[in-house]
Design a protein that fits this description.
The complex is a heterodimer.
Chain A (H helix, E strand, L loop, with lengths): L1 H19 L11 E5 L9 H15 L4 E5 L6 H12 L4 E4 L5 H10 L4 E5 L8 E6 L1 H15 L4 E6 L4 H17 L4 E6 L6 H13 L4 E5 L4 H9 L2 E3 L13 E3 L1 E3 L2 H13 L6 E4 L6 E3 L8 H15 L10 E2 L5 E3 L7 H5 L15
Parallel strand pairs in A: 1-2, 1-3, 3-4, 4-5, 5-12, 6-7, 6-8, 8-9, 9-10
Antiparallel strand pairs in A: 11-13, 14-15
Chain B lengths: L3 H27 L7 H19 L2 H25 L4 H20 L24 H5 L4 H19 L1 H11 L1 H6 L4 H27 L11 H11 L4 H23 L6 H24 L21
Helix pairs in contact in B: 1-6, 1-9, 1-10, 1-11, 2-3, 2-4, 2-9, 2-10, 3-4, 3-9, 6-7, 6-11, 7-9, 10-11, 10-12, 11-12
Classes of the chains: A alpha/beta, B mainly alpha.
Chain lengths: 360, 309
């Protein structure tokens, strides 16, 4: 019992010290900000979008020096990369992948004067903040567009891996599509791969053969849009505007806008007002958004999307509010209830309207 | 039939890049040189094919350049393994890393670009045949070329004088040398030629199949080809069969998923590898009984002339 009390006391102390802890202002021309990437910038997807965010910082704060290392494995090597940044004078480090979580903690403990920002994780500290984007909100909006545009009521979804992030996006997309058109069915092909343009294209073709007249994706390359253009079906991209791969068929795409959180953080560091935060922004801050629409998207659909966007951005409603059933008919979210962030981060069920089961 | 034809057509399509790489590696290995660098060489091919097509506007130049790039990169492997007699396994792995890194480094500025590349060209007459037409003759020119290549490689290995030398050098370099064949010349030619075809397999992905360059876009196909060489027991016809089988399993499992049925997809995807392991076991068992199936006996062994005495 005494031990317990001690722990509680310590925790409280931690909390207070967190609040009290503050970092001195760093003049912009002295500030060096560093980015740790798990993939190559050339992936044209995840890391590419983070790097665009870094470039936005360079543009907004020309005096700030930025640096980065790509393709750093999510292991002990990442600590070395961070130590290297610090030796080179980095004052704030952005670690852009989940797998860096414990290594960020390790490095942060050793360098309490350096600010760390970890993407998509859940461990914070005095000098560690976390950030992520509510991509599912943009996915929901893109679903509205897809659901409005399908004539056969069959949408095909090319999905990378059956993990919560992808499942959450697929579910949000399906909820959007079925809100626009309750008869929609979403067929899914799981790739079990993050980057494989050949396989992505084959999956797209398989879905078109199965009757889909709109495709959507959680994959990294422009292969699916390309296959859609060739097959003459509409497509919803991902990560960034993929219309160059499907000039006439790219309806829109849910896109990341990491520059928002990077500029926010760098500004706070410059002003000396930075403190550890748990940032999970969505449409409200423009951290996620929709890419420009195709010509074919009618105004009525744009209005529908805009209405829903405002409802979500204002906080009036969010995507995973009940009633929501899974695709086996069980009521998962009751009327008036809402999934917590924890539920969202561990999602492992498919909403009504998605065909098939999760691969085990 | 309506269900099966698209699957078979997809099998040929996705099997083709692997087929090029497998045929290339068969040529190389038949002469006794093991090259595990296929993944890297394919990436070099995909990269070269893409940038040359992008800058010249001609997919033909792109493919030709990719072939030459494969030959050029394999000069390194040949020099290390044949002239310097380095360990071929380590050399091959180094080639994979080299090709992966090199293509990623150089290809950075081409990410997100597209080319018009080569597309489907139905063969008049043949493409209207039932089943066979849509499966084999409603494809792109590189697929048609791969049909020729299968026969060409078979002819080269089993029907020409050079092929005889190649097999002799791969099986027993000592006897070949005694018969007046220059082991290193034959091995050099086979390694370079093989590298060219492996590289074409990579270029197929970027120039013909997806019209884009993405880092690491070969996604393990080089390793599949390494396995397929064994599955094919070093024969070009069985290489075609194996490549289409791999492509077919992938096409099938995707269509089963798209149909809404859940099958354990990873299980199905393992199938070709399991078959490869079974063939490997078969080769070993038969070897133990004194029967050789076509695996080059001197595969992976550096050749020392001095050992003659």
């Amino acid at each position: 019992m005494r031990k317990m009390a001690l722990i509680v006391a310590l925790l409280t102390l931690c909390l207070f010290s967190t609040a009290a802890m503050s970092f001195e202002a760093v003049p912009a021309d002295k500030l060096k900000a560093a980015w740790l990437y798990n993939g190559p910038i050339g992936d044209g997807g995840w890391t590419y979008m983070h790097d665009l965010g870094r470039l936005e910082v360079e543009k907004a704060f020309p005096a700030v020096t930025t640096m980065y290392v790509e393709s750093v494995p999510e292991g002990p090597d990442s600590v070395r990369a961070m130590e290297n940044f610090i030796r080179n004078g980095a004052k704030v480090i952005f670690a852009t992948s989940f797998g860096y979580m414990d290594y960020v903690q390790e490095a942060a403990k050793r360098h309490p004067d350096v600010i760390f920002m970890h993407c998509s994780g859940f461990k914070m500290a005095d000098n560690v903040g976390i950030y992520f984007g509510r991509m599912y909100q943009a996915r929901y909006l893109s679903g509205l567009v897809a659901g409005s545009m399908t004539k056969k009521n069959v949408i095909g979804f090319v999905a990378a891996h059956p993990i919560p992030e992808v499942i959450r996006g697929l579910n949000a997309f399906t909820l959007g599509a079925r809100r626009a058109n309750p008869d929609v069915k979403v067929k899914v092909v799981w790739l079990f791969s993050w980057i494989d343009p050949g396989k992505e294209k084959e999956a797209a073709k398989a879905l078109v053969d199965a009757g889909a007249d709109v495709l959507a994706m959680h994959a990294n390359t422009g292969s699916v849009p390309q296959a859609a253009e060739e097959a003459g079906v509409y497509v919803v991209g991902y990560n960034n505007d993929m219309s160059q791969y499907a000039p006439t068929k790219h309806l829109t795409a849910p896109v990341w806008n990491w520059g928002v959180v990077y500029k926010y953080t760098v500004e706070k560091v410059i002003n000396g007002t930075w403190e550890p935060e748990d940032i999970w922004w969505g449409l409200d801050k423009g951290m996620v958004a929709l890419a420009p629409y195709a010509k074919d998207v009618p105004d009525a659909v744009k209005d529908l999307v805009e209405g829903e966007r405002q409802r979500i951005a204002s906080g009036e409603w969010d995507v995973f509010e009940g009633p929501i059933k899974d695709n086996k008919g069980n009521l998962i979210v009751k009327e008036g209830q809402k999934l917590t962030d924890q539920d969202l981060l561990s999602m492992n069920w498919l909403v009504e309207g998605v065909e098939g089961e999760l691969p085990k | 039939m309506e269900l099966i034809v698209p699957i078979l057509a997809a099998a040929v399509r996705s099997g083709t890049p692997i087929l090029y790489a497998t045929l290339g590696e068969i040529i190389t290995e038949k002469s006794g040189v093991l090259n595990l660098g296929l993944e890297g060489i394919m990436l070099i091919g995909a990269y070269t094919g893409f940038i040359v097509t992008f800058n010249t506007g001609s997919p033909l130049w792109g493919l030709a350049a990719a072939f030459l790039a494969g030959v050029a990169v394999n000069v390194i492997h040949a020099f290390l393994c044949i002239s310097l007699r380095a360990n071929q396994v380590i050399c091959g792995l180094a080639m994979t890393m080299f090709g992966t890194g090199m293509s990623s480094l150089l290809g950075r500025s081409y990410v997100g670009q597209t080319i018009s590349g080569l597309g489907v060209m139905p063969l008049p007459g043949l493409s209207s045949l039932p089943v066979v037409g849509p499966v084999f003759f409603n494809q792109d020119p590189m697929v048609y070329m791969s049909y020729f290549l299968v026969f060409l490689v078979w002819f080269l290995i089993f029907k020409t004088k050079f092929g005889l030398k190649m097999r002799a050098v791969g099986d027993s370099p000592l006897s070949a040398e005694a018969a007046g064949i220059s082991v290193s010349t034959v091995r050099y030619i086979s390694t370079l030629l093989g590298g060219g075809f492996v590289s074409l397999g990579g270029a197929y992905l970027s120039v013909v199949y997806s019209h884009m360059w993405v880092e690491l876009m070969t996604a393990g196909r080089g390793w599949i080809a390494v396995a397929l060489v064994i599955f094919a027991i070093w024969h070009p016809f069985r290489a075609a069969l194996g490549s289409y089988l791999f492509g077919g399993v992938e096409a099938l499992q995707m269509r089963i998923q798209a149909g809404g049925t859940s099958i354990p997809a990873p299980l199905l995807m393992m199938l070709p590898y399991i078959l490869t392991i079974m063939v490997l076991v078969m080769i070993s068992v038969l070897k133990g009984r004194g029967r050789f199936l076509g695996s080059p006996s001197a595969l992976g062994l550096p050749f020392y002339r001095e050992e003659r005495e």
